[in-house]
Amino acid sequence: MATEVIVPALGESITSGIIAAWNVKEGDYVEKDQVLYELETDKITSEGLAEVAGVVSLKAEEGDEVDIGAVIATIDESASAPAGGSSEKSESTAAPAENETPEKKSDAVSPAVRRIAEEENIDPASVSGTGKDGRVTKGDMLKAQPTSRMPAEKSEAPAPKPAAKAPAPTGERTTRKRMTPLRAKIAERLVAAQQEAAMLTTFNEVDMTAVMGLRKQYQDAFVKKNGVKLGFMSLFVKAVVNALQEVPGINAQIDGNDIVQNHFYDIGIAVSTPKGLMVPVVRDCDQLGLAEIEKEIINYATKARDGKISIDDLSGGVFTITNGGIFGSMLSTPILNAPQSGILGMHTIQQRPVAVDGKVDIRPMMYLAVSYDHRIVDGKEAVTFLVKVKQALEDPARLLLGV
């Protein structure tokens, strides 16, 4: 008896995906709930599990685009497990020969793990596996620290080459690879946002002295009580919610010829992942405390890094916050996350001389940018919104008092 492996429905708007990697080979014996493949769509990357145990027969190859509902493999349940357990188990747990090299040992891991090992120069043998029977998973590789880098990688910068030296004649000057569905969709949405909205950006700067002092004073007590650190993002989320309540015109969107006014505060937090930018949504931020927001952000960051983000996690936000400052960005003009009408860009904190009470003082300053849809948001509303965010951060007591 053979059980079909069918591409499952992942969301109303998703009709197909690309098989990014097979984690098994033709003829392998698989256990129930073993990861068989990774499927990339224009929104998420998901893993397919075996519904039954048996010998697998592949009907599609890596890189194939497959429709939702398509049969991509079968599992023969009548086949018995090989002596000593499944082929994957025997490969992954077998002791290497004395002369076996790390490269040969990597053949026992999944194609996704091998791909990350090659792209990021990480030795799978040095990574602690959390998968079945200690197998190194894709998530383990993405979380690997620099100490897990392959020996061939050197920490010091290579010596500069003479500018006049020509490249080796046998080396490739360019490489070409297919754009992933997720990257293609990101590109499509970013271009559409610029073409469809009358996008404008306004700027301001915020003195982070009070926020940094607050974190320093209460960080230990906050961690002890809540188990997470008090970060900047939860304070920015609260400042944004406060500003949206004061300037509700930003919390609206265009639907055809109608303006839809939102009365809830689901805030999207842009997260950079190896697959591209994702924006998971923290729900009902007006009802959450700082610790709850921090935990939600940590949870989403972990899910995004491990490729576990779902469609529901990315849907329904009314406003987005993006933090280019973690990469050192000093100033930028963020692009709207359609159909939202506003997005806040955070930037790096820099010590700068500023005038305070008639005297020059060195303060930790951050530039803020708000991009907005000028079709429904007037300049006065956008500027007022950004000033409200600035005021809440420079005087955090406003967030507690709701003023």
From TrEMBL:
Chain intervals for the UniProt region annotation (Disordered): 79-178
GO cellular component terms, A-Z: cytosol; oxoglutarate dehydrogenase complex
Bias type Basic and acidic residues, positions: 132-141
Cofactors: (R)-lipoate
Top EC class, one word: transferase
Record-linked InterPro entries: 2-oxoacid_dehydrogenase (IPR050537), 2-oxoacid_DH_actylTfrase (IPR001078), Biotin_lipoyl (IPR000089), CAT-like_dom_sf (IPR023213), E3-bd_dom_sf (IPR036625), PSBD (IPR004167), Single_hybrid_motif (IPR011053), SucB (IPR006255)
Domain of life: Bacteria
Co-factor binding comment: Binds 1 lipoyl cofactor covalently.
Transmembrane segments: none
GO molecular function, one term: dihydrolipoyllysine-residue succinyltransferase activity
Residues in Lipoyl-binding domain copies: 2-76
Keyword presence, Transferase: yes
GO biological process: L-lysine catabolic process to acetyl-CoA via saccharopine; tricarboxylic acid cycle
EC number, UniProt record: 2.3.1.61
SUPFAM superfamilies: CoA-dependent acyltransferases, Peripheral subunit-binding domain of 2-oxo acid dehydrogenase complex, Single hybrid motif
Keywords from the named record: Acyltransferase, Lipoyl, Transferase, Tricarboxylic acid cycle
Pathway(s) of this molecule: Amino-acid degradation; L-lysine degradation via saccharopine pathway; glutaryl-CoA from L-lysine: step 6/6
Keyword Cell cycle tagged: no
CDD domains: lipoyl_domain
Peripheral subunit-binding (PSBD) domain segment(s): 108-145
Catalytic activity: N(6)-[(R)-dihydrolipoyl]-L-lysyl-[protein] + succinyl-CoA = N(6)-[(R)-S(8)-succinyldihydrolipoyl]-L-lysyl-[protein] + CoA
Physiological role: E2 component of the 2-oxoglutarate dehydrogenase (OGDH) complex which catalyzes the second step in the conversion of 2-oxoglutarate to succinyl-CoA and CO(2).
Family matches, as NCBIfam families: PRK05704.1, sucB
Annotated family: Belongs to the 2-oxoacid dehydrogenase family.
Protein known as: Dihydrolipoyllysine-residue succinyltransferase component of 2-oxoglutarate dehydrogenase complex
